[in-house]
Structure formats: C-alpha cells, structure tokens
Amino acid sequence: MVAAETAKDKALRYAFGNVLCFFILLLIGVLAFSIRIFSVIKYESVIHEFDPYFNYRVTQFLTKNGIYDFWNWFDDRTWYPLGRVIGGTVYPGLTLTAGTLWWTLNALNIPLSVETVCVFTAPIFSAFAAWATYFLTKEVKGTGAGLAAAALLAMVPSYISRSVAGSYDNEAVAIFALIFTFYLYIKTLNTGSLFYATLNAIAYFYMVCSWGGYTFIINLIPMHALLCIVTGRYSPRLYIAYCPLVVLGTLLAALVPVVGFNAVLTSEHFASFLVFIIIHVVALAYYIKGILSPKMFKVAVTLVVSVGLVVCCGVIAILVALVASSPTKGWSGRSLSLLDPTYASKYIPIIASVSEHQPPTWPSYFMDINVLAFLVPAGIVACFLPLSDASSFVVLYIVTSVYFSGVMVRLMLVLAPAACIMSGIALSEAFSVFTRSIKFQLPGLSQSHQMDAGDSVSEPSGDVIQNDIVKTDRHDEPVKERPTRRNKKKEKENVDKASKPSIKSKIENRLLVLPLETSIIALFLLVLLGAFYVVHCVWAAAEAYSAPSIVLTSHSHDGLHVFDDFREAYAWLSHNTDVDDKVASWWDYGYQTTAMANRTVIVDNNTWNNTHIATVGTAMSSPEKAAWEIFHSLDVKYVLVVFGGVVGYSSDDINKFLWMVRIGGGVFPHIKEPDYLRDGQYRIDSQATPTMLNCLMYKLSYYRFADTDGGKGFDRVRRTEIGKKNIKLTHFEEVFTTHHWMVRLYKLKPPRNRIRSKTKKSKSKSSTATNLKRSGTGKKNPWH
Amino acid sequence: MLFRYFITFTVVYNLPCNTLSLINLHNQQLNSLRLLYLMATMATTLTSSLSSTNSSTDPLSELQSLRSASDSAAIHLTDSLFRRILSHHPRSFSLLIFFDATQLHNKPELQLQSLKSEFKLVAKSFFENNQGNPDELSKVFFGVIEFGESQATFAKFGVNSLPHIRLVGPTDKDMKSEPVKMDAGDFSRLAESMAEFVESRANVVVGNIVRPPLVSKKQMGFIVLGVLIMLPFLIKRVIAGDTLLHDWKIWMSGAVFVYFFSVSGAMFNIIRKMPMVIPDRNDPNKLVFFYQGSGMQLGAEGFAVGFLYTIVGLFLALMTHVLVRVRNVNAQRLVMIVALFVSFLAVNRVVLLDNWKTGYGIHGYWPSSWN
C-alpha cells in the first residue's frame, strides 16, 4: 500500500490528516466546553460557591476602574474596620484573564455582562487546557497519543469538578497554564529553540499569576533537569530549556505582588537555584571535554573534582546553615506535609482539619480519574520504550503528582492531566497494535482496515458511545501513519526506491502483530472501557459536580424543590439596608455578602486575621448581651445566620458552631469548648448545656423555630427536638427570614437609655438582668 | 496563603465530621481492647504487696537524688516510694506519672513504648533546660510506674486503660479523682504537646525539647567521610554512564510502584494509621478486609484495589510491547486471552466494589423514548 503511494499522494494524505486533526481538536474543544455547562442548563448562569464570588467582585472592580486602580485597591468593604489590600494579596491571573476577555468582547461590540464572562471563563479554559494537552502529548509520543490525551482531558471528572461553568476560581485557568508551561518546556527540550524558552518563561509567569500551585512547576522542572544530568542525558537543549526559565521566570515571578521576594527567599524555590548551579558546572565540564583531548580531560577532571568538591561542600554547608536557621527550615507547612505526609497531622491541625487536605482513599481515584487509573501503568511502560527526554518528563510528572495526590485529595487536580497524558499514550499504543494486527491479517486488501475499524467499533451502540467511535477513529488514524512515516524517512535515507523497502517494512510489521481474533476482542474491550469512561464523565459532570451551592435543589416524590434562600437574603440586604451598614456573619458568607449584597462585612473567606475571626466566633458563642456588646463595638448593625433545621440543609451555622467556639476560644480563653459539650458530645436537645442554650448562635438559629411545626421544634439536620423552644431575644430583633428559613437576619437593637439601666444596675445586679430582658422584649424598636 | 484553604473545611463540613466520628469509633474499639488486656492481667496477678515502710523524711531530696541518678531524668516509681510521697501533704511539687505496663509493650496499637520514650524526652529536656534553676527543677518530677511491680498504685489511681498519664498536684489527696489526666489530644503531638500540658498545668517552663539526633556526631563524621571518599568514584561512574541509575528498568519499576502505592491509598493508611484488617464486630473470629462506607479504607483493601488498578495497565503494556514480539502465535493467543480475561475481571471487580462501598451508580443519558 505504501509502495503504491506517490509523493503527491503522501502530501495529500498528510494534509488530509492535518485537517482531520484540526477538526478533531475543534470537536474536543466543543466537548470540553459543553460538558461543563450542565450547571448552567440545570441551574442557571450563576457564580458558584464562595471564593468565586470574591473573584467575581474583583473582576467587576477591574472592569469598572481599570488596572491601576485594581492594583492599588484597598477594600474597605471587608474586614471592617481593618480593610484589606486586594491588589497585593491576590493572584491576579484569573481576574486579569476574565477582564481582558470582557474588554475584548466589548471592543467587538458583544455586550456580555461581567458575570457571564466570569461564568464561562472556566469552560473556555478547559478547552484550551485540552489543546495544550494535545500539544504536550504530541511532543512526547506523537499526534495519535496527543489526540487521545486531549479527548480524555476534556472530560476528566477531577478537572470538571473545578471548572464547571460558574466555578470561577484560580484553578480554572491555572491547569491550562500548568499544562501549557510543561508543553513549552518539552518543546524547548525537543527543539533547543530560545524562542520557545522565552515563551516558556512567559507561560510560567502566567502560571505564577494564577495559582499558588506554581511551586509544583518550579520544583518539577529542576527535578527533571537533575534527573537528565544524573542519568547522563545532558544536552545543550536541556540547558536552553532550563536556564532561561529559571532566570526569566524568577524575575517575572517576583513581579507578582503576592509572590514578590518569596521567589528567591523561600525554600520552595531553592531547588531550582541549586540545579541552576549544577547545570552550569555540568555544562562547563562538557564544554571542556569538547576542547580537550581525552587524556587532558582526565587530568582536568581529577583537578577540578578535588577543588570543586571543597567549594561545593562549603556552599552547601552555608546553604544548610541558612535554611536550618529558620524554624520550619524555610518551607511552608503545606509543602512540608507533602514531603512528610504525617507532618501535618502531627503539627498543624488546621491544615490537617481541612477536608481538601485529607489523604484520599481508593474510591476517590475511581471517582476522579475513573478508568484512567487502569491505563496509566501501561502509559508509564510505553514512556520507557524508548525513553526520551520528553517521555522521562511526563513519567516524572505522573510519579510526583500521583504521590502528592495520595497525600492530599486536593492535588488530584494536578494528577488529572498527567493521568490523561499517560492514558492517552497507552490507548494510542494499544490501538495502534491491535488495529495493525487486524489490518495485516484480514484476508482482504489494504482498504479493509477502514472497514474493520468500523466493524469493531460499531458493536456497542448508543448515543454516548457514538462519541467514542469518533475517539477511537482518532486514536488509530494518526498513529497508524506514524510508523509508516518513520519508515519512510528511514527509507529515504537509504535511497532505496520502489517496492523493496515497503515489503521489508511490511514484513517487519507482520512480525509485530497479535492474533486476529484476540485483537478484535481486545479492541472491543478497550472501546467498552472508553465508553464506560464517557458515561462516567457525563454522569459526574451532570450529577456530582454541577451544583452551584448557592442555589440548592432537592428531588422528592412531589417533584423538584429549589432553595434560593441565599440570594433572597442578600437581595433583601442590598435593598433594605443602608449602604454603609455592617453585616456580621461567620466568615464563610463574607465573600458572598460583599459581592451580592454589597455590604461591609467583618470577616470573610480570606481568613488572614485570626483574631478578627475569633472575635466574631466569640460573639456568636457568647450570651446575648456580651455578643451585643462585641458586635456594637464593631459597628455591626445586622447579623446573618444560616440555619438548615427547617429544610435539612446540613452545612449550616449550628453544624459549624464548634469551630466558632474553638477559634474563638483560641484567642479569648473565657470561651471554653467543654462548656458547649455535654459529656464530650455536641447536642442541641434538652440535654445541651446551659452555655450552649444561651449562646447567641443557638438563640438566633432557633428563635421562633418551634412555631414552624406546631411547637415541636424538630430540627431536621440534627434529627432531634431542640432543647429550648420559647426563645426571647433582648438585644437583637429579627428583621428577615428567608422562605425556607435558611438565612435569618437580625438587627442589633439600638443602645437603650443608659441612665436608666445604670441606675438599675446600681440597685441590684440580679434584678437588672431579668428586668432588661423584660423591658427589652416589650419595647418596640425606634428604628421601625 | 494558609488561610485561603481554610475556607473549605466548613463548607464541606460534613465530610471531616463523618471521618472524625468513624475514627472515634475506631478509637473506642481500641479503648475497649486496652481495657480488656488490663482486666485480664489484673485478674491473673492478684497480689497485694503491702509493705509498711513509713519514713517521714521529706521525699523531695530523695526524688532529687533519684532523678539525678536516673539517666533519663524520669524517676522509676514503685508502690512504696509512691506511698511515701503521698504521706506528705501538701507537697511542694507536682508529679507527672506515666503508667506503663511491660506486658503490653507488644501491642503496637497502644504505642506505649514510643509514648514512654517521648515522656522521658520531656523529662530530660525539662531537667537539662532548667539546670541553673533549682527552684524550677523542684516544682515538677517525672515518674514512670510499671504495672507488673506496682499494681497497688494502679489501683489507687483507678487506672484501667493505657496509655495513661496523670499529673498529681501538690494538694491532691484523692488519687482517683483529683489528679489531672492528660487527654489523648495532649500526647497526640508527642513530646511537644506533653510539654505544653505540663507547662500549662504545673506552671513550669519546660523549654525546647532536646531530641537526640538520629545519628550521633561521631557517626555523622564517619558518614561524611565515607561520602567524601565515595564521591569521586561515584562521579566517575556517573560520567561514565554506568550506575544503577542508568538502568531504565529500575526507573520503570520504581515509577509503577509509586503509582501502585499511591492509588492504593497507602498514604491514607499511613497518615490515619489504619490497620490492615479489623476484627468483625459481630463475630470476633472473622476478619473484615473491606470497609463499607466512603471516606475510610483498610490497609488490605487499599492494596488489593491498588493491585487491580495496576494489573490492568501492566497487562495492556505486556500485550502491546512484549507480546507482539513473541513469534509463537498460540502462545500469543493464550496469553492475550488470559490477560484480557483478567483485565476485564479486574475492572469489573473495581466497579462492583466501588458500587458496594460508596453506592456508586452511574447511568447513561439515553433518549427517553428508548425506555
């Protein structure tokens, strides 16, 4: 078949292959985008969760005020009365990206709202990430593997979980930046081009702008460079790939305010500098080796090694002393817990307590990378046959990321691209072997291949699998071309023409085949596996990862229920309160309150000031009067409480309350956790401690609650009857409760007549307390 | 930086809550185990060593001399010594007692030995950090008491489970109720948290914990010397490209092993100190290998599934890279059939196991007219 082809045919064939490849990539992009808009279809175009609301607000500010104001932005709407410097404390990559998108669209007279742009940033960048994966894998193992990897990445559940439409968070763009940086590194490594090296540094800069996970890159690439040196794979290409990245990349990274001098001062970056020194020494050695005769070189080596060792030891000793002088050896707690998995659980309970920082169990892998978990080992083996610079890099990538993901479930996100690349390689190799076996052993002619690829694939039927047919076609087509192309090149060098070499190659190929029947079965099983992956991913995208958590739904026998209480409450706040009113709530709702209600909050999700959070925690865990005093001293006018007892929303404030007590007690020792626990158990029923029953959080949550179900007061989250039913408020008054009672807003009563209460206090202390209560409840608030 | 991640733990509050309670449950099991051991040993060795040594001398000087005599600065307490100490009331010092039982040293889940050495470390650090301050030194004494030889004291304190650490204050009289018990949380972080406990309860300054270095200075010197001698040879071999590191097979098996290790959730087992198997609650003779419920796994379970994860990929690699080079068609056929069959079973098994463990169930989105 190859023999029959003329040069023109070949050119046509390649052109056709490229066009096909282009369209496949386009389809992959569409797939990556569309699988992520389940959240918009099932719910609506809305920003999800908590952090994205902050990013959204920053983007709004950016688009309204421009980049300079954004850079210098001091936000007085949050952390009242401290405020927060936003420009210097955020990773600006995401906001700048979305802002640029919005500007471009507006310049093109496409008037999209900022919110819409923000909602769709993540899906758009997932498509980019898929394409970057294609390029990266193509550099490693060719087009076929690239397309397979891109298709897999487009729908890998782990990545979907962070990049559905509306999930407007740093990871959305950072994964693209990560893969693209790796691609450029490998591209430089393969070509030795300084152009790509510069691009690589810029891509790294973008990654630093986007996500704190950039430290993974700046440690992985030096590790790879070192590995290459140690295994004797040093080349000038490696030098070009590595050194510009370190020099330019570090300089650029230091430009990002939130990183700044950390780029040269913290241990996370030291590995890159150490390898930078080593690579120069090695480069020098190679250079000298080139200009000296072997004998002279030997002499030089012994001389240099003996002198160099002394110098090296000195430098290392100084470095070690420097690093050891800092208490954590210059590493941040989270990095340390990656190196020593048991570190966090021993020394940093706050990191260990975060659910995202838990080590995953095996079902997490099945949920997040699904069948890729089965294919990765095959990919690893394929990368070693033969081992190249590029393939050794992806092996290193998968090994480090799979180890890290084993320590923290959150890092599964970094593993996902590596798993996709490996599985793409494995799938493409397997498909090429199996289809080749079928092609060369079918009794038909060369054209028969097209048919049996169709045959074997068309066995499973159905909508979703249809998708996979396209995929399998993708795998084998370009891959098949590759060996022939390679053979061709060889043959060209041999200057052998006509039929001879083609027969040779045919024989070669014939030898490397498997039995026909089993190949068909294997192909069938692989397609089945792929189909399962597709079904799983669609299911995960549709059912598991698309809930925006600001709008909740529940299915029951009488249909779908939508709980839109959060937005109801925030809308109420923005319409019914003064612009400068301060709202106190637990910090989870800080970002949302500032973004949606545009009211000043005391604490928010950027928990940079523990004392401030502890103050709010203390207020929530104090009795009403003390809480009122704390809140009043902070100028708070409204208190927002999230309560799920009516509808059974389990992540409400009562469930988080123990954290408020703990964090509050950490700073203000008069709050003691045991006071809130009955025999070490957290309960809210009649067995609850008096401190618990009298604290502000309990009262605000359960105020008038017993009225909802005829005096029973059955909490549907805790599944118990509450301990105190007729709650009277003295210092707070209810101003708004949402439809399903999920958010309750209270207003601080204005300070009452001081002279009167003072005289009363002087009379008797005990009577004041009761008196205050009575007068408090009886009095109407002058504000209304 | 740190705080950004803070967010999630209340947001996904339910998750840690579940795992915590599971762990508690597990701990409860362990506790009951501990109790059982002790009850058994108590029953078998019912002895009362009531000797009457009634000395009225101040125990302070005796304790001081005992402390300086012991090499860890933790005093070995006995029934008689303890009785003498108690006979003085009020005392001028506190006494932190570690309850030890030699016959339970072979129960790894209690970690008695490691806790004991940590305890001694605190004692030693306290002793050494306060050398120039005799007042401070005489405020607290660290004592270790052993169950086999001092059962009367164990009974006096009402200790029925280990590990157990108590702080006897200067004025404590009733040993069952008054002395403060160190919670499990206080020795979870080993010596550091024990020191915090002592500092807060006994008003003393322990100071930095002085851990003995892993290798002594002499050993360190030898190692450095050895490395220095080896280095030129190593560099020579590296340059020549002839080390174990140049063998790609080692790298490959290493990579596959790390992969196997991680996907099996072994990190989870290490961090959470999960046992390989646990005894069945209903039938103690049986062992539970697989734990039902997401968010937790047992050691054996993880390795089994990790093996299933890995084997499929390895078979695939075997077929695509090794088997194609085999010339015997029948051998190829046979190996392929076995490999495909095993792979199919492995995938099937993992899906079923996941379904059983977490209630995982997916469905395709077929057109509704098809139903």
Describe the structure.
The complex is a heterodimer of chains A (784) and B (371). Chain A is mainly α. Chain A is built from 34 helices and 11 strands. Chain A is 65% helix and 5% strand. In chain A, the strands form 4 sheets. Chain A has a 5-stranded mixed sheet, sandwiched between helices. Helices cover 53% and strands 8% of the residues of chain B. Chain B has 13 helices and 7 strands. In chain B, helix 5 crosses helix 8, helix 10 packs antiparallel against helix 12 and helix 12 packs antiparallel against helix 13. The radius of gyration of chain B is 29 Å and the shape is elongated. The two termini of chain B are 52 Å apart. At the A-B interface, helix 14, helix 16, helix 17, helix 18 and helix 19 of A face helix 1, helix 2, helix 9, helix 10 and helix 11 of B.
Give the beta-strand count of chain A. Answer: 11
Q: Describe the global form of chain B.
A: elongated
- Total helical elements of chain A: 34
- Radius of gyration based on Cα positions of chain B: 29 Å
Rounded to an integer in angstroms, the radius of gyration calculated over CA atoms of chain A is: 32 Å
Low-confidence runs of chain A: 445-501, 758-784
The pair of chains with the biggest contact is:
A-B, 100 and 96 residues
Shape of chain A: globular
User: What average pLDDT do the residues of chain A reach?
Assistant: 82
Largest sheet of chain B: 5 strands, mixed
- Proportion of residues in helical segments of chain A: 55-70%
Distance between the termini of chain A: 90 Å
On the 0 to 100 scale, the average pLDDT of chain B is 74
Main sheet summary of chain A: 5 strands, mixed
Which spans of chain B of ≥5 residues are poorly predicted at pLDDT below 50? 1-55
Please indicate the percent range of residues of chain B in DSSP E strands (runs of 2 or more): 5-15%
Helix share bin of chain B:
40-55%
Kindly report how far apart the N and C termini of chain B lie: 52 Å
Number of helices of chain B: 13
Number of strands of chain B: 7
Biased composition (Basic residues) (chain A): 752-764
Keywords (chain A): Endoplasmic reticulum, Glycoprotein, Glycosyltransferase, Magnesium, Manganese, Membrane, Metal-binding, Transferase, Transmembrane, Transmembrane helix
Domain Oligosaccharyl transferase STT3 N-terminal (chain A): 19-422
Transmembrane segments (chain A): 12-35, 85-105, 117-136, 142-160, 172-197, 203-227, 239-264, 270-288, 300-324, 365-385, 392-409, 415-434, 511-535
